[in-house]
Amino acid sequence: MIAPLANEATIDRLLQVAVEVFAENGFQNTTVREICSRANVNVASVNYYFRSKEALYSQALTFAFLEANRLYPQDAVYDLSLAPEKRLLLFVTNFLHKLLNDHHLGFHTKLITHEIANPTKALDEIIATAIAPQCALLEEIVTLLLDSKANQIIVKRCVLSILGQCLVFKHSRSIIDKLFPELIADSTAVQASAEHITQFSLVALTQFTQANEVLEL
User: Could you tell me if 105 and 152 lie in one domain?
Assistant: First the structure.
């Protein structure tokens, strides 16, 4: 009988390697044989532990999100005793650092980006378990910053506007590295960019609030 710890070590190794290979090649162009070869395990291991390539891919995506959240926990963002402005700054800072961490999360963020650009059946589960809760958290913060009676369509547009300001640093990384490298040169620069996004967003949200107050007069 195989010891439970041996099972866990094999599963962990398969997931680590799967994240790397899927990130490099995408789902369609990745083979189970390549993953097993690089993980130094028998090809039958994928069927034994995961049942299929699709299930391995889905768990690799989940693993990537969990690893990102482990390195950048968001506990403080949920602290209702903090002002919503502070919670927004914490959210944006966390998200931006997570997106731009190539050292620890290079393959993880690349895999997640790959899945969003070329979605598979696994995306629905990832949206439900990882992405939707983050959007709901940001919606809560934005609603507090506007007001409790804010139009939910406007709230959702504001949420996407804030996320978009962060995501441009990831999806346009090659351009930013050439045109404005000082904006993300190191952790201090990333923090400054996060503070800018937050301040820019707060000013915009204030304009929405003032516009609503004028309409109500």
Answer: yes
Residue 89 shares a structural domain with residue 165: yes
The domain that contains 36 carries what CATH number? 1.10.10.60
Residue 169 to residue 120: CA distance in whole angstroms: 24
Residue 49 vs residues 11, 28, 29: alpha-carbon distances, Å: 7, 20, 21
Task: Residue 136: count other Cβ atoms within 10 Å of its Cβ.
Answer: 10
Position 143, amino acid: T
Please tell me the predicted confidence (pLDDT) of residue 55: 93
> Residue 85: how many CB atoms within 10 A of its CB?
16
Q: Is 135 exposed, middle or buried (0-12, 13-18, 19+ CB in 10 A)?
A: middle
**What was the pLDDT predicted at 208?**
74
Give how many domains the chain has, as a whole number: 2
Give yes or no for residue 148 having a pLDDT over 70: no
Rounded mean pLDDT of 142-146?
A: 94
Domain assignment of residue 19, given as a range: 4-61
What secondary structure does DSSP assign to 176-191, as a single string? HHHH-GGGSSSHHHHH
pLDDT tens readout for residues 59-71: 999 888 888 888 8
Q: Are 125 and 190 found together in one domain?
A: yes
71 and 52 in one domain?
Answer: no
